[in-house]
Amino acid sequence: MLKGGRQEVTRVVLGSGKIITASVDGRLRQYDLAKLDAPAVELTPLGVRIDALTPDDSGWKLLAAGQDGRLQILDLGAGQRLLSAIAAPGW
């Protein structure tokens, strides 16, 4: 069992030795596959339900799409937001 989550998980990404989960409250958690009994590392919260997650090829950056239409690129190593943009209406 993964530790630390308290809300319904909406998305899960597996790759590069880690599991990343997104929950309905906009929180992202990163788990180390080698230490699943350890607590998750919480990444920068997005504040809205996360509807999509996609890692880049390196596994160190993550594209997250929120229910509000915002796209965000996160640095998983630093746990920081690199870019945030709103999708154009009708896109």
What does this protein structure show overall?
The chain is mainly β and 91 residues long. The chain has strands at 9-15, 18-23, 28-32, 41-42, 50-55, 61-66, 70-75, 80-86. Strands 1-2-3-4 form a 4-stranded antiparallel sheet, with no helix packed on it. The mean pLDDT is 84.
Indicate the percent of residues in helices.
Answer: under 10%
Alpha-beta content class: mainly beta
Low-confidence segments, given as residue ranges, are none
Classify the beta-strand content into a percent band.
Answer: over 45%
Our Rg estimate from Cα atoms comes to: 13 Å
Task: List the SSEs and their pairings.
Blueprint: E1 9-15, E2 18-23, E3 28-32, E4 41-42, E5 50-55, E6 61-66, E7 70-75, E8 80-86
Antiparallel strand pairs: 1-2, 2-3, 3-4, 5-6, 6-7, 7-8
Keywords:
91 residues; mainly beta; single chain; 8 strands
Summary?
The protein is mainly β and 91 residues long. Helices cover 0% and strands 49% of the residues. A hairpin with a 4-residue loop joins strand 7 (70-75) and strand 8.
